Each structure stands twice: as structure tokens, then as C-alpha cells.
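Weekly modeling sync, notes
Attendees: AB, CL, MP (scribe)

Item 1: holo prediction request
CL wants a bound-state model with adenosine-5'-diphosphate before deciding which constructs to order. AB pointed out that an apo prediction alone won't tell us much about the pocket. Agreed to run with the ligand included and paste results into these notes for async review.

Input as submitted:
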Amino acid sequence: MSSEEVSGAGVTAATSIAELGVEAAGRRSAYGAGALIMCDRVVRIYTGEGIEVQALQGLDLLIEQGELTAMVGASGSGKSTLINILAGLDTPTAGTVRVAGHDLGSMGAGERLNYRRTEVGFVWQQTSRNLLPYLTGRQNVTLPMQFSRMSRRRRAQRADELLAALGVVHCADRTPERMSGGEQQRTAIATALANGPSVMLADEPTGELDSATARDVFAALQTANTDLGATILVVTHDPAVSAQVRRTVKIRDGRTSSETLRHVQANEDGEATHHAVEYAVLDRAGRVQLPRDMTEPLGMRDRVKLEAEPDHIGVWPDDQAGRDEANGGAAR
Ligand SMILES: Nc1ncnc2c1ncn2[C@@H]1O[C@H](COP(=O)(O)OP(=O)(O)O)[C@@H](O)[C@H]1O
Ligand SMILES: [Mg+2]
């Protein structure tokens, strides 16, 4: 082989690697291009006292504008970590988070402050964390608008419109201690919406409330979504809440593991019926989390066999695994 041919082959390889790079970059920018919220392989590691907690382990999530999405998952699965990152209060260790065109990993201090003031609104579980105790409902709602160009009168007017839309206009002149827990949370939703944010984040907003009050607060979130056009991501433990949203995302071990989509269908009598389908999430690396309640009864562990069928993929237990163990590992 002549040296010319060798270098020729080298050039060809380099070109195709460069092309692959361009193609891969194109695919990266295409992922979530039109989405309002884009989480791409988000990792958040907490370190301290020699222990390392991987709260988010490569989480992917896309949320479109106008959606009301519920997020569920066991305690410690990473829900609050994600909400804090989306709120601009924390930054990812690795991966990309983009909300309404802002890259949350690389924002400077000024952009971050502006992002928190105008692009996101939040409602936390603790009613006391959402409202200032010495201000009335109306004053709480107008407070985030202090940096806007609206006149004082227009701000008060907007506060009253929001309070009315959320059914708490009677709380306009009350301080939080004179409101019920549900009224406080609905006033908090109004406050979160004051600047017309691109997205509203709510971390277990009904967690401290009894179930009837929780229903009212959730109804207020739905109003914020349908009547006021807010895109909402709400963390909840309440199955009654997740049953009422179109999309529920489940987090397990710091990753999105499954999604439940609900469709309204008309039955033969023309009545609307709700139809829920749970999907496993297939990430861009081709990974799927198999639910433990499906794998454990079949003794699936470490390895499974896959069989491609024309219209589906079969997953089978590794029948070799039992035999290896019976032989005391002699087969290995
Ligand atoms: N500030 C922190 N320092 C260390 N570990 C943390 C911190 N915040 C959360 N974690 C850990 O990260 C994991 C995810 O926590 P979190 O996001 O609060 O879960 P969730 O909201 O789903 O209950 C847990 O193991 C938790 O102990
Ligand atoms: Mg939490």
C-alpha cells in the first residue's frame, strides 16, 4: 500500500468523523427545539462530608407551551431538585436546561435575576414561604410588579383581576394570617402569575392542605392554565390531581421513567370518557426503565433477552442466569 493511499484513507475517515460531528450537533440542537422547557441529560450531584448524592442522573424532559403537567415520584427521587433548577435557584452539575430561550446553566447573575423575576413564577408547599405575612393579598400580588413599567393603578387593577380569576378577590385586603391555607395558596398562585411568567412551577402546592381544600387549589391551577394561559409544572403526591391532567411524568432515581397520557374519548353514547395510557420513557440513548413490579416476578436482573418482532420488542428473562447459579457459577 502506498503512503498516498494511507493518507487518502485518513482524510476520508477524518471527513466522515467531522460529518458525524456536525450531524450529532444538528441532532442536539433539534432536540426540544420548539419546547418551552428542555432538559437534556441533566445531572445534579450534591457533595458534602465525603458522600455524594446523585439527585438527577441524566434526566430528559420536554414541556410544550400551554401544557399543565403533573410530576410524581417517590420521596427523594429528585423532583424538588429539578424544580429548583428550573426556578433558577440552583444549577445543574452537567447537562443542559433551557427555559423560554434561557440556558439556565450559563446565565450570568443579571440574567438569572431577571429570569427569576419575569420568566418563572413559583408556588411552594409551605404556605408561609409564598406570601409576605405583613402585606395584604393585593400587596403581595403587586410586589413582583414593582420593576415593571406599569403604573401603580394598573398594578393594583391587575392584582385584583388575578385574585378574582382565582376566586380570592375577598382576600385582597387581608393579610395571610386572616386567610385559610387554601386561600393563601390561591393568592400565592396570583402572585406567581403577576408578571405573566412563561412558566409556573409548583412544588407540592397542596401538600399541607386537606383534600377538599387541595381540590380548590388545584382548580385554581387549572384556571391559571386554561383561562390565563400559563404553562404549569406541578409536583404532586395526590393521585386525584394527576388523574385530572393530560400528562403525568414520573421520576424515578433522578430520571423520567414513565409518562401517563390521558385522552378524552367519546363512547358510543357520545359521552366523554377518560382514557389513560402509561408509557415507559425511551431516552435518546435507547434506555428504558423497566418497572420493578414487572421485572421482579419474572426474576429479571442484570441481563434480559430482547427479541425483535415485526410490531413490538419482546423482553425475556435470562434463562441462562438460573443455570449458572445452579452450577455454582461453573459455567462462567
Ligand atoms: N441540598 C442537598 N444536599 C444534599 N443532598 C440533597 C440536597 N437536596 C436534596 N438532596 C438529596 O437529593 C435527592 C433528591 O432530593 P429531592 O430533589 O428533594 O427529592 P424529592 O423532591 O423527589 O423528594 C435525595 O436523596 C436528597 O436527600
Ligand atoms: Mg420534594
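Recorded for review: Residues 46, 48, 53, 55, 73, 75-81 surround adenosine-5'-diphosphate (ligand 1) (CB under 6 Å).
Action items: CL to compare against the apo run; MP to circulate these notes.
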